[in-house]
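Lab meeting tomorrow. Look over both lines:
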Amino acid sequence: MKKLIYFVTILFALFICSCSGGMQEMLDDYNSNFTPYEEENLLPGQEGFEEDSMLSFIYHVPSSATLCLLAPEVSDAKYEWKITTKDNEEIMTIIGSRLILYIPNYEIKPGTYWLTLTVKIGQGGEEQIFTDSSELVIFEDISKM
């Protein structure tokens, strides 16, 4: 029994000695394995903005869900979201910087569509137009079957 107590005491002492730096040193060591993300979010109209970066390449949404997207906010901009079939038949147009689409309310059937976001900044001859399109796949919700 004394040998066991002696062994546990030695093991505990070694453990205490190995943790000399404390919690902050351990966190700093862990965080040093990552590089900070410093990319600036550019907005439409700013130099270097790429309009094809406004939407993801594809969105997969169950037929019982809500699709919520937010366009890059620019003052005095006009926003238009358009959903069309692959044959370019318009399903709907939503005006505003936010797209909140509760699929069952609009009775959009499962299938593949195009989602297009158009951002217009300025007026008349000074108007800048930025457009991005994405594939929108609405699939049958398995939990409803």
Summary: The chain has a mean pLDDT of 85.
